[in-house]
Amino acid sequence: MLDKRMFELLNQEVDGTNSAKERQEVKALLSKNAEARRTFEALKELAAFLKATPQVEPPSTLKRRILASLPHAKPSSQKLFPLFSLARMLTEGTNLRYAYTFAGGAVAGILLFAFLTGSPSDTSSLVGAIGSSTPSKAILSAEIDLPEIQGTFSAVEERNEVIATTSINASEEIDLIVRFDPAALQFERFQISDPSSGSVTLHPGHLELKGSGTMVFTLVFFRKSADAVALNAEILIDGAKRSDVSLTLEQSSH
Amino acid sequence: MTHEQDHALVQQCLNGNQKAFEILVDRYQKPVFNLAFRFTTSREDAEDIAQSVFVKAFEKLSTFDPKFKFFSWLYKIAVNESINFLNRKKRFDTFDEDVHSGKHGQEEHFHDHEMTASIDMALLDLKTEYRVVVILNHFQELSYREIGQILDIHENTVKSRLFSARKKLKGLLLKRGISHA
After folding, report:
1. How far apart are CA A28 and CA A23, in angstroms?
2. pLDDT in tens, B144-176
3. CB–CB contact B92 A7 (8 Å)
4. pTM to 2 decimals?
5. Are B123 and B169 in contact (CB under 8 A)?
6. Which of residues 26-55 of B touch A (CB under 8 A)?
């Protein structure tokens, strides 16, 4: 049985951190102790296995994603972009990927104002881009008009971010499922106008928004693909689908 | 790039030059991503963690003490973020089996090398305190002293944990049929 010191020396030998004197001790130990030899070989092999484990290449979008997340201020500044602050508060308190059931947030800002005051579309299905001369800034919007639910589902692209907003007035409790392709869009953060009105849960490939009354949800995605990307919103009441709208953002020029 | 250059870049960031931070991201995104990946074995999770690490580093840059190496400071944030992530994940995994099973399905496609997969899985079976020293020593190639600085523990504690971790890892790999280890 190897004692603690011998085991340490063998480990340090593998790491190349033994002194000359310790190396001599190891040499002597290995020459007369079969267990020490077996242990030493096993440690060397383990180190070789670990060394041979390939490095993983980060996704090519990681740098852009990191830079897009930085607050637009000097690092010493404490003042953060409001959406960002909220997202940080949430991610520090809970797991962004798996679930949000939370309270917090403020009404969506200029973007929301822009689409609410824009010309509404008149169907509950697909609506194309408005303003083809500036496709990357186009606001897509679909109207939801049911007896118990009225509102809009809209999306706009700003740089590499896709910002989707649902503005809904529902007389009953609804489930709103927003589906997206995770290969094309990375969900980043969201805001809710009134924390008491609803909740958001993130699942792989879709977000589940629940609530009733007047609700404004703003969802922010990072665009990972330059191809056209689709967002789909389904509304369910008591598990039954009542509305299904899709928005397709054009190919990105970025 | 030397540590002095890192320090100069940090100073430039503090003076408002965001481009300098971009250079630091360029240099360290891969080791930070890899560190997070070895903790989680998930590319998506590692991406989230890496993003969070750099955002935190940017926010706290004014607290960086130049008597230390920038990467040690950054790795410290990365280790903390990874451990916090795993703790949160444990809580949520209890409630969200769909997410859990879905994620593992994705990762199966990623591991096309049996040995790598076995090592990753064996690492996951190690206690966090053991896993972290193995990752920092074997995958990030940091010295006992550097690991001690990152984890705020004495060098002797690093050695003790690392050597115990190797013993356990060896046993776990044997269980997984990795012979001779």
Report:
1. 9
2. 999 999 999 999 999 999 999 999 999 988 887
3. no
4. 0.56
5. yes
6. 26, 29-30, 33-34, 37, 43-48, 50-52, 54-55
